[in-house]
Amino acid sequence: MKSIILHADGSFVHEGVLNKQGNWLPMISWGIVALYDDTEVELSGKRTACNLGQKHEIVAFFESVLYAHSHGFAPNQTTIFTDCDSLGRMAVSLHPENYISQRMSDLRLLCTVAKDYNIDVLNLVITYLLEAHVQFVTGLNRGLYHARADYLARQIRKSKSFVPFIHWIKMYAKNKSAWKFIPHTLTIGC
C-alpha cells in the first residue's frame, strides 16, 4: 500500500511585514518534508497572519494535508508529524464520542485558520485529523526530518535561501547536541 510521511513545522514572528499604513503585521511560515515513493520533497511558504496569531503549526498542518491530498494519498495512507500539542489532542477530541466542550473549542480553533482557506479545506483537514496518523513529537525527540522542516520554515520567514540538505546535515551534525535528534539507523551516502 502506498503511503506518505510528512514532517510539518511552523514559525511565527510578531513584526514580520510593514504594511502601507506603517503597521507591522505578524508573519507565519511553514516548512514541510514529504517522504513517499523513494522521494523526498521539501516545501515551504509564508504569509501575513492578521487573523492567525500564533497558529503557525496549524497552518503547517493544513498545508501538509493539502499536499497529501493533492498527490492522491488518502487519510489512512498519511502520517503527519507535528510538534503542535493541540493538533495531537484534536486527533482524539474531534471523535464524536468525546466530550463536546473540548470538541467545540478545537473546531473553533480550526475554523479560525480555515478563514484563510475555504470550507472544503476545513472538512478535508478534519477528515485527516480523524483518519490519518497524526504523531505529536516534542522538540527533544523531533528527529532529523522534523528539524529540517523547522529550518525551512525559519528560512522562508526570513526570506533567506536554503542550504541543500547534504550541506545542512553536515552543519547540523557539527552541533554535538544535535546528534541526540538523529536516529541511530541514519546513514549518509556521499
Please explain how this structure is put together.
Strand 1 and strand 2 (24-36) form a beta hairpin. Helices cover 41% and strands 25% of the residues. It has a five-stranded mixed beta sheet. Helix 1 (56-70) crosses helix 4 (119-131). With 190 residues, the chain is of the alpha/beta class. It is globular, with a radius of gyration of 17 Å.
Strand order of the largest sheet: 3-2-1-4-5
Low-confidence runs: 178-190
Helix content range of the residues, please? 40-55%
For this structure, the quaternary state is single chain
Report the C-alpha radius of gyration, rounded.
17 Å
Number of discrete helical segments: 6
Instruction: List how many beta strands DSSP finds.
Output: 5
CATH superfamily: Ribonuclease H-like superfamily/Ribonuclease H
The second-level CATH architecture is 2-Layer Sandwich
In total, the number of domains comes to 1
| Largest sheet geometry | 5 strands, mixed
N→C terminal distance: 30 Å
Helix and strand string, N-terminal first?
A: EEEHEHHHEHH
Q: Shape from CA axes? A: globular
CATH top level class name: Alpha Beta
Strand content: 15-25%
Nearest-integer average pLDDT = 80
CATH topology: Nucleotidyltransferase, domain 5
| SSE class | alpha/beta
